[in-house]
Amino acid sequence: MPKVHRYTLYKAKPSRMSTPELMYIRYPQIRQLSNKKTEMKINKTLKNYAEKVYENRKKFIKENPPFKGGGEIMKSQYGLSYKVRYFKHGKLSIEFSENEYSAGAAHGVSSYTTYNFLTKNEKNVSLKTNFKSNSAYQKANHYVQTYMKKHKDRYYLAFSNGNKPTIYGHSYFWTNHGLKVQFAQYEVAPFALGAPTLSIPEKFLGETLP
After folding, report:
1. Looking at the chain, which runs of residues are DSSP E strands?
2. Quick one: pLDDT at residue 208?
3. How do strand 67-69 and strand 72-74 relate by DSSP bridges?
4. Are the beta carbons of 40 and 12 closer than 8 angstroms?
5. Global pTM?
6. Cβ burial, residue 91 (10 Å; 0-12/13-18/19+)
7. CA 63 – CA 74 distance, rounded (Å)
8. pLDDT (tens digit, 9 = 90+) per residue, 45-103?
9. Cα 116 from Cα 25, distance rounded (Å)
């Protein structure tokens, strides 16, 4: 049975603002897929992403030096964590969270990247590919916009300053009931709500993937 193993590319020295999400650069590697060629390609993609984040970290730390405030020295931090959002029926969703904290800031910021692989051919499936048709893709987008309008108390940033949210090109991950689209922090909701996700009804989705 396929399994996911955790690897650590980098570990920072602990500081006052340290959390696992900020201290480590971690990434998953898949083991025991029936197709070893596919397994190798998926693992290479995931490791390459972690190595890219490590380069981002070096640049960020250099551009954000330690800050002295309140009698102590605070240091910037940058890490990578992940979650296995889905792994069954020949589909694998890995959600990466790239986390940064700039010394002296009130809180950190995270951005999200997902990989959605078909384990039969290592294809990283785009959001649009999941839908029955282009029309279904557009209707799903309208569904999300309507949902946010009905819940403006929660998603009031979605339509502020002339904004109009869309699902097009967004990160997503598969679930037992279809998929969830991932929005960025501050994109549609305040920081307190993090990076919201919204479920897409199965009626818009296709039954098969290439």
Report:
1. 3-11, 24-31, 67-69, 72-74, 77-88, 91-101, 109-118, 171-175, 178-182, 197-200
2. 66
3. antiparallel
4. no
5. 0.91
6. middle
7. 14
8. 999 999 999 999 999 999 999 887 767 788 899 999 999 999 999 999 999 999 999 98
9. 20
**Helix ranges, 64-176 (H):** 134-150
Q: What is the four-CA torsion angle of 12, 18, 19, 22, rounded to 10 degrees?
A: -50
Placement of tokens 């009804």 in the chain? 201
114 is written with which tokens? 């997902």
In this structure, how many other beta carbons lie within 10 angstroms of the beta carbon of residue 29? 15
In the 3-class helix/strand/coil scheme, how is 101-118 assigned residue by residue?
Answer: ECCCCCCCEEEEEEEEEE
Residue 50 makes CB contacts below 8 A (sequence gap 6+) with 7, 9, 25, 26, 27, 80
Tokens at 200, concatenated:
């897409």
